[in-house]
Amino acid sequence: MQKGTDLKQIQRRVYMSYFQDGLWDILLGVFLVGWGVMIMFEFVAVMGGIWVAFFFIVLGLKRWLIYPRAGYIKIAEARRQQMKMVIMGVVLLLLGLAVSFLFDVGSQPAWIGEYFMFLFGAMMAIIIFVLGYWWKVDRWYVYAGLVLAAFAAHQWLYAPLNLSFIVPGVVVILCGLGLLLRFLRRYPKPAGEGPGASG
């Protein structure tokens, strides 16, 4: 029993270290801000491509900035979790497009039409919460709460819809940048190692 508990604690520390550089936070924030901007210009369909593009940019930044400083954690579970993040992002995009289509054609029940954007925001918050639970990163629970509060403000305080994405997205980006700067200061790059060193 003790051995299983120790394994879970080690796994939690691995996941926390994988997220301590803030790059995944920045990716989430860019996704939210990008979605809000696309709503402003009524061009939401490209959001899936932006998500995938920034996902691979983050992987490249990890190889260039992070791995030379902190090493490369070769864990199969981490790779599976990465794929889950991509899948959840694509699912979220498809869900948003599907719900938007139903809203346009007016085929949904009246209560869904009245609260559908808040419900959509709640589902997005749940996904962010679940990602935080999978990765054992508590601050993502706060991000989920911010998204939920922003959509509540849209629903009941009539705040602009695009701000429901942009405001929490900017907060998440700032948190991610703060984590990244702290990580770079704490772990200077070892002299003589190339940017792609992975150990």
List keywords for this structure.
single chain, 199 residues, mainly alpha, disordered C terminus
Describe the structure.
The structure is a single chain. It contains 7 helices and no strands. It has one domain (about 30-185). It is about 80% helix and about 0% strand. The protein is mainly α. The longest helix is centred in the middle third of the chain and has 30 residues, at about 75-105.
Question: What are the SSEs and their pairings?
Answer:
Blueprint: H1 2-19, H2 23-40, H3 47-70, H4 76-105, H5 110-135, H6 139-157, H7 161-186
C-alpha geometry: elongated
Number of helices: 7
Rg is 19 Å
Low-confidence stretches: 194-199
Topology pattern, helix = H, strand = E: HHHHHHH
Précis, in short:
The chain has helices spanning 2-19, 23-40, 47-70, 76-105, 110-135, 139-157, 161-186. It is mostly helical and 199 residues long.
